[in-house]
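pasting for ref
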Amino acid sequence: MRTLTRMIIKDLIPVFLVSLIFFVMVLQLLDIFNNLWKYLNNQVPLSTVFRIALLYVPKCISYVLPVTILFSVSFTLGNYFANNELIAILNSGISLFRLSLPVLILGLFISLGSFLFDQHVVIETYRTKNDMTKRLTGQEENYNNSQVTIMSEGMGRIYHAVFYNDSTGELSRPLVLERDGEGRLVRRIEADRALWQDGLWLFQKVRLYTDFSASTGPVLTLRDEFTDPLLNEPPETFRRDIRNVEEMTLNDAREWIQSQMRAGLPYKEALTDYYRRYSFALTSFIVTLISCALGSRFRKNILLMSLLTSLGLSVAYYIFQMITALMATYGTVTPVMGAWLGFILFFLGGIILFRYAPT
C-alpha cells in the first residue's frame, strides 16, 4: 500500500504544479489587461507593473488552489481509469476510499497550510498590491460621507450628520440625541456644523434642547458654541467605509467589526466575510473529496473532462458562496450560515458522490 501511495503522490504532484502555474498565469493576465489602460495613461514603468504582478502572486495562489487540486486529482485518477490501472487496483480488494485516503489527507494539509499562508503572506502582499495600484493609477480614496448615522457604545447617544468632510474633520448640520438608561430622551443637540478639536466635537450655532420631562415641553437654549467631554466619538467613525476584510488580519477584522456593531453601522457583510475566511480555507479539502469521487468516472477525454469539471464545480461553488453572502447581508440567514452553508452542502454532496462512485 505504501508503494501505491507513493505512486499516486508522484503522479499527482507534477500535474498539481503545472496546473497551479497555468491558473495563476490566467489570473495574472486578467489583472494586467484589466488595468492596462490605467498603466498606460499614467505611464507606469514596466518594472513597476512586474512588481505589482509579483505581489499579486500569493493572492492568485490562494484563489486558484481549490481549482488546481480539483483538476489535478480528477486528471490523475481519470488517467488510472482510462489505462485500466484503477480497475486493477479496485479488483485487488483495495477500496476507493482507501485508495483516496492519502489524497484526502494531502487536501486537508493543503487547507490548513492555505489558512496560515493567507494570514502571514497573502494579506500583506495583497494590501500592498492594491495600495500601489491605486496610487500609481491615480485612484484616490475618498472618505467623505453623507447622511451618516451612528450610535455610541451602549446606544445611549445617537449621532447624525448631513455630511462629513474627512479633509477638514467637519460635520455639517449635526444632530445628537442622548437617552437615559430607560431609553427616554434627555438632551437634543442641533448645530450648523461641528469641528473636531482636542479630542472633542466643538458645535457651532447650537440649539440645545433639555428638560423633556417638563409639562411645558423641552427647554431651548441657543449658543454660539458648545462642547461636552462626553461628545468624543472619533471622526474615523463617520468616515465612508471602504475597508476590505480581505486586507485585514483576523484580529484586525474582528476588532473592526466589533466597532461597527457598537456604532450601529452595517456589519453583516463584513462579518460574513470574516467567517468565510475559515470556511474558504477548507475548500481545498472539499474539492479533494469531490474530485476523488469524480475521477473514477472519466475514461475518455480525461484532460478536457477534468478541466471542465474543475472549472464548472469551482464556479458553482463560488456563485453559491456569493448568493449565501448576499442572503446574510440582507438578513435572510445569519452571517455564520452565510459563510458555512456552501461548505456544508458541497461536503454532503461530496460524500454522496463518493458513496455512489463506480468501484
